[in-house]
Amino acid sequence: MSAPDGPAPSATLTRPRNPEPIRMRTVVLLRWVAIGGQLTAVIVARAMDIMFPWGPVLLLIAAAWAMNIWLFVNPPRRISPRLAVGQLAFDLVQISALIALTGGMSNPFALLVLAPVTVAATSLTSRQTLALGLATVVLITLTAMLAVPLHDAQGQPLKLAPMLTLAHWLALIIGVAFFGGYTHRVALELDQTSNALFATQMALAREQRLQHLGGVVAAAAHEMGTPLATIKLIAGELADELADRPDLRDDAMALQKSADRCGAILRSMGQAGKDDLMLRTAPLRAVLEDAASPHANRGPTVQIVADGPGIRRDPAVIHALRNLIQNAVDFAHSCVVIEGRESASHLTVTIRDDGPGYPSALLPRIGDPYLTSRRGGAQRGDYEGMGLGLFIAKTLLERSGARLTFANGGPGAMVTVRWPLHRILAEQRAPLGENPMFLP
């Protein structure tokens, strides 16, 4: 259990990404807001007698207006990543040209050139975001070099000092890298978390389907018991009556044996179904053995030390503990120890191994989805996890009321799961006692 890794999600558990990276109506709405802001700035500048090329500026605003009208009249059936990049590139060129015509770096609204790359970072791939970011850097540089200065009412140019112009240009370049990189990282982590939660829901749904299937099997075994008994009885009577017909009597006996075999199969299935359907509580040791059973013969010795009380046999808790035990077995050298103990107010389960332990740098972040792709492990040389197993386990156990602590020591990695007793103990059913006496 050295690295906070879990099994890599399979294709069946990975929720497909939205085929439309951004909705077209969102692009259109943002552009309408930009057009409104640009017109407002032009009107305010006109009222303040600030001079700049009115005609080209209004022509650029009209181009954005025409693009929105065209998208309204001819809406695309779906917006592909390429179309999204094209729309954001159009906005980038339009805003950059406006800034170049209205003072360049001396324009206080120059920071709006960061809007397209920020929008791209929330919805497009790393390559597309990087391409749009580089285009933004180029256009900001051209804007600073080719800017048309603003003039006041007396015709005096409104310019920044060269040092301030350089500083403003550098601030915008840093803004492209910071806002683009940070926004893309946050969007990517949110998407990964969403996929991991989807995998958790799939795992829980599988456990619930297995329980429901057990109930169906038990019901089928019960309902088919009577018809099979009838078939067996009739086959026996036919065998007795066909004593003088050996060929037919053999067929009747074969039918009787087949009915016996079906009855035995249904009895075993019915018992398993009843176990799945009815067993809602179990001793702590039994629950831990259930969670550890798939990994008992994978190499390292799995020791269970627990004499705790009866607890709720929750499929989510068992699945989560199984993930923690799997992680321990994957990285243990020779031994995994699972301990369960009860105190006056809490129930604690500790899982520790003798592996190399958690990487110190990742210890505070264990439980985050897709945390690492570190290779290693004594039992699986080709092991490559992504932290999803621990994320699922942490999510399920915290939902059950537990608190998890990850640490090194024991001598390898150690996970401590701690529940308040009232959240995990099974309901204790006592006899009803004597009926009360009602006196007239």
Structural description of this entry:
It is found in: Cell membrane. The protein has 440 residues and is of the alpha+beta class. It folds into 3 domains: 24-199, no CATH class; 201-278; 282-424, Heat Shock Protein 90 (2-Layer Sandwich). Helix content is 57%, strand content 10%. It has 11 helices and 9 strands. The chain has helices spanning 24-47, 54-73, 81-101, 115-123, 126-146, 162-241, 246-278, 284-292, 315-331, 388-399, 421-424; strands at 150-151, 157-158, 281-283, 301-306, 310-312, 335-342, 346-353, 403-408, 413-420. Strands 4-6-7-9-8 form a 5-stranded mixed β-sheet. A two-stranded antiparallel ribbon has the order 1-2. Strand 1 (150-151) and strand 2 (157-158) form a beta hairpin. The radius of gyration is 35 Å and the shape is elongated. The two termini are 70 Å apart.
Task: Write out key terms for the chains shown.
nucleotide-binding; 440 residues; alpha+beta; elongated
